[in-house]
Amino acid sequence: MTALSGKVQTVLGLLDPAQLGRTMTHEHLTMTFECCYVPPPTGDDAVSEAPFEMRNMHWLRQNPYSSQENLLLCQEIEAVRDELQYYRQAGGGTIVENTTTGITRNLPSLKQLAKDTGVNIIAGAGFYVDVTHSDETRKMTVEKLTDIIVSEILHGADGTDIRCGVIGEIGTSWPITESEKRVLRATAHAQSQLGCPVIIHPGRHTTAPTEVVRILQEAGGDISKTVMSHLDRTIFDYGELLEFAKLGSYLEYDLFGTEMLDYPFDLEIDMPSDSQRVQALSFLVKEGYEDRIVIAHDIHTKNRLTKYGGHGYSHILKNIAPKMLTRGISQGQVDKILIHNPKHWLTFK
Ligand SMILES: CC(=O)NCCS(=O)(=O)O
């Protein structure tokens, strides 16, 4: 038991879990993603550097990581404020903001957005993938990394007194690097001290989520209080999905709204459509996992904002939840996925 037990920690302070309402468990409101820039396809240099215009939006949807401009979500605070107001009107209550060290977390902006819009915002502690680790981070012991993560939750992060309410998204690559393994062990140690929620970004390989769970478990982590993100681009075979589900983490489908033919980080991967994502949720519900599913859009580039013709933070509430009802998922099960499961995950033990 700690002073946080039974509560959820937002950037504005502690909250009774019943106040969360509908929750997107994996979004970004302000961040940079330059670490993942991908050069444009041959012949597309001009469009990749062109100003944002309506006629370029389809290209950006297909090549979101090949425009430096598109990777600077941090420049869109006003648009994000408007989006959050719309999210509230659409019935949204809470957003888990997964920006960790390495992709430009901005806690003062998150606090201001929460004040301005009334949306509960929960900030993430810890470190993103290895390519963003500083030399200093790479040299840290597990104990030092644990101290930093614990302090980001108990006292505040980035030189502020604004406290994180979840560990993650903790970034891992494939194969998982030594520095990432130390961060994972520190995550598990911090979680066992604090009883807090954890969320993981797995590497792009079907066995990556299982390997992360193994490392966390060996270090004493609580898998039942851990979300495995990005399953929609990681595990495709339903048999493998069930094997992973048995390990007991929350199962997150968080790329709703992302539709692209060539997934540039791994051209072997066919990014599913939203319809296929809903089919996967329906399958998991039928297999008895309705208490373990959470969903989100993981907005991390500009083109996905409604300002630029994107789906925005309300797509799930406006379009996906109604679609789920037509595919064998009941209203009660939708409420579990959007309200009850996030609430249980986010409540400190
Ligand atoms: C911000 C972030 O890590 N998004 C995930 C993008 S990915 O293509 O699913 O790895």
From TrEMBL:
Reaction equations catalysed: N-acetyl-L-methionine + H2O = L-methionine + acetate; N-acetyl-L-valine + H2O = L-valine + acetate; N-acetyl-L-leucine + H2O = L-leucine + acetate; N-acetyl-L-isoleucine + H2O = L-isoleucine + acetate
GO MF annotation list: hydrolase activity; zinc ion binding
CDD domains linked: PTE
UniProt xrefs under InterPro entries: Metal_Hydrolase, Phosphotriesterase
UniProt cofactor note: Binds 2 divalent metal cations per subunit.
Xref: Gene3D superfamilies: Metal-dependent hydrolases
Alphabetic keyword roster: Hydrolase, Metal-binding
Residues noted as binding a divalent metal cation 1 in the record, renumbered to the chain: H26, H28, E169, D298
Annotated binding of a divalent metal cation 2, by residue: E169, H201, H230
Cofactor list: a divalent metal cation
Family that this chain belongs to: Belongs to the metallo-dependent hydrolases superfamily. Phosphotriesterase family.
Protein name: N-acetyltaurine hydrolase
Species of origin: Clupea harengus
Gene designation: LOC105891336
